[in-house]
Amino acid sequence: MDILKNTQAMGKRIYEDLEKINFIRTSTSAEETRAANIIREELAKAGLQAEIEEFMVETADIEKVSLNALGKDWEVQGYRRSGSTPEEGLTAKFAYVQQGTEVDLYDKKGMIVMVNSGKLNEEVYERMVRYGVAGFLTWNGNVSDVLEQTDLPERELRSWATRYGVIPGGVLRAIDAMELVKGEPETVTFTLVQENVERPSRNVVLKMKGTDDTTENVTFGAHYDSVPFSHGVYDNGAGSVILMELARHYKENPPKRNLTFCWYGSEEVGLLGSKAYVAAHKEELKDVQLMINVDVAGSVLGADWAAITADESLCRFVEYLSKEVGFSTDVTQEVYSSDSVPFANEGVPAINFCRFGRNGGAMIHCRHDVIDYLDYRNLGKTAAFVQEFSDHMVNSVVFPVPRKMPENMVEAVDKYLRKKRVDEK
Fold first, then answer.
1. Count H helices, E strands: the chain?
2. Does the residue 425 lie in any domain?
3. 16 and 80: one domain?
4. Of 18, 121, 202, 348, whose Cβ has the fewest other Cβ atoms within 10 Å?
5. Is the same domain home to 204 and 174?
6. Per-residue pLDDT tens for 282-298?
């Protein structure tokens, strides 16, 4: 059986759907709402009635941000939800603290520090709070970036950081960070004034009754929001439109089990859509046998991957199925940073299907996540395999995946969600 021979028509439909949401659609924005309505309208054309569920997102409006050092102003963006400096700014000694280790930070009380890009993890942030730094800076991108081809988005402190306290923070481009450090300023003046607010985001939810008399449910998920500056067609417009194709498939081929399809908003700011859905539908989760998530797909240069947060036997099943139907994919048992995590946290087995642009074949979280690097053939191939796998799951006589989260995955989910504070470990 070769499921890949007749995927062109499927891929072309999916690609056409993708073009309809080919625009920037950040958390809580009007464009995110527009995308949610497009998804609902396209489903309605197939006779599928989806609902929109609102949830509130904590964010902040930045009113003023600036950085002055070495006699000049530097382009800087703020960290939302990181608190504010005085209106006139904060002038303090400056230190480049590299990776933010204990040695780097132990004597930096009252200073404004710069930490290396990518190192603002929980341990580093907790140290900055504990040692009393007055403000922090990070940097974005590479020192070789061309100014006209790079963007400098605002960033946001996540809840795992704010539980330690807030420190006003900003982000520079890498080249500016390097020049600032080379200039060795004794002091810098950093200004960040912002107001915390709450705004609505939206999940699109479609429920489909199975033909069997059962409460068992299989839930499908994909997030449809993007990051600033990004059209987010790879991450994750592609997964969203693959889900739309699957919904149409089961409309035409009714499944034995009940199905739920969820298109999540605000994934890019901390999986907030799926967290909100799980919180609002807690009683229903006992019937969910498996969560099937699709996040990133369609890259011309790339490779498929199934990341499984469930019993290892599901890994073996996916490996065997891929060989049976002639679909090349990697399979691993691990936590994948996407909307399957809140389900796994509630004990629901989960699988994530992805097609990564390998070695620069596609890019995420930047202005270069564009449709040019994707094609309908690979969208169709990934969708066909997800559909083949899903058909086995939703129509099995007895559900084949154990409804129990293995201990190693429980530990991995707990670590991912930072359930314990660093100072409690």
1. 12, 15
2. no
3. no
4. 121
5. no
6. 999 999 999 999 999 99
Distance of CA 228 to the CA centre of its chain: 13
Structure tokens at 120: 């603002």
| Backbone torsion region of residue 165, taken as left when φ is above 0, otherwise alpha when ψ lies between -120 and 50, otherwise beta | left
Residue with tokens 């991957």: 305
Domain range for 284: 8-58+199-416
Cβ(67)–Cβ(73) below 8 Å: yes
Structural domains in the chain (count): 2
Taking only the tens place, the pLDDT of each residue in 23-62 is 999 999 999 999 999 999 999 999 999 999 999 999 999 9
Q: How far apart are CA 180 and CA 192, in angstroms?
A: 19
**Cα–Cα distance, 216 to 219 (Å, whole number):** 10
The CATH number of whichever domain residue 133 belongs to comes to 3.50.30.30
189 within some domain: no
Verdict on whether the full-model pTM lies above 0.70: yes
| Distance of alpha carbon 254 from alpha carbon 208, whole angstroms | 9
Residue 287 · residue 260 · CB < 8 Å: no
Are 339 and 405 members of one domain? Answer: yes
Tokens matching residue 267: 């994934």
Question: Are both 80 and 172 inside the same structural domain?
Answer: yes
Instruction: Examine the domain organization and report whether 236 and 97 are in the same domain.
Output: no
Cis amide prior to 236 (ω within 30 degrees) = yes
Residue type, 45: K
- Final residue before a domain boundary, out of 158, 184, 210: 184
Contact (Cβ atoms closer than 8 angstroms) between residue 107 and residue 84: no
Distance, CA of 26 to CA of 269 (rounded, Å): 9
Quick one: pLDDT band at residue 173, thresholds 50, 70, 90?
very high
Residue given tokens 């006699």 in the structure block? 71
Task: Write the DSSP assignment of 349-360 as a string of letters.
Answer: -EEEEEEE-GGG
